[in-house]
Design goal:
By secondary structure, this protein is mostly helical. The protein is built from 9 helices and 3 strands, in the order αααααββααααβ. The chain has a 3-stranded antiparallel β-sheet with strand order 1-2-3, with no helix packed on it. A hairpin with a 2-residue loop joins strand 1 and strand 2. The relative contact order is 0.13.
């Protein structure tokens, strides 16, 4: 199969699943714009060379480029449903801001879709939740963002979409945000080699 066609199919399949998830979560119209930057030359022309259909092409790009990803920089800087969009770097520190409800909720739709798109045979809400929990040590997310996304994924695993209606998630988001600061500072050290396995 041609590389560009494989990438186009997987990106489109993923987007359509996010849109379906967004309908359940009450953010359908927002999800119609999900990941449109993946079709741009800046992302597509690189991603198509690494597309396998089994996982994100960013993993292969990182493997071949000492962990560095031009696609990731372009993508996360333009898509607000990624926690990286809500981080800033200043004075050797990472400054993280809590993701607004609609983007944190879109992140949930995105994670569930990615899990289902790349590994449909083993997809489950519980597996997606456990994957997120394992990866949070590598993410500069505020406690509020992290707890809200984790709560949504766990709730989906236990009760499905019926427990993630817009009114319910907005209320939970407000409760969690009331417990934590909206901006957090993370101190980084040069030479820390604890990178995730690719």
């Amino acid at each position: 199969m041609l590389k560009w066609w494989r990438q186009f199919r997987i990106v489109s399949k993923h987007r359509h699943q996010v849109i379906r998830n967004g309908f359940h979560l009450g953010i359908f119209w927002q999800c119609l714009k999900h990941d449109l930057s993946k079709y741009s030359p800046s992302e597509f022309n690189i991603s198509k060379n690494y597309a396998s259909g089994k996982h994100s092409p960013l993993l292969e790009e990182r493997r071949e480029n000492d962990y560095f990803s031009m696609v990731s920089i372009h993508h996360t800087g333009r898509n607000k449903h990624h926690w990286e969009y809500w981080t800033d770097f200043f004075g050797g520190k990472v400054i993280a801001k809590t993701m607004p409800w609609k983007y944190a909720t879109e992140m949930v739709a995105d994670m569930l879709s990615a899990s289902k798109t790349y590994d449909p045979k083993h997809f489950s809400g519980q597996a997606c939740y456990e994957f997120f929990v394992r990866r949070t040590k590598y993410c500069y997310m505020t406690k509020a963002s992290e707890e809200y996304v984790a709560w949504c994924l766990k709730t989906y695993a236990e009760e499905g979409w019926k427990a993630l209606k817009k009114k319910i998630t907005k209320k939970k988001y407000a409760e969690i945000c009331a417990l934590h600061p909206q901006v957090e500072v993370f101190y980084t050290l040069k030479g820390d080699d604890s990178l995730p396995t690719l």
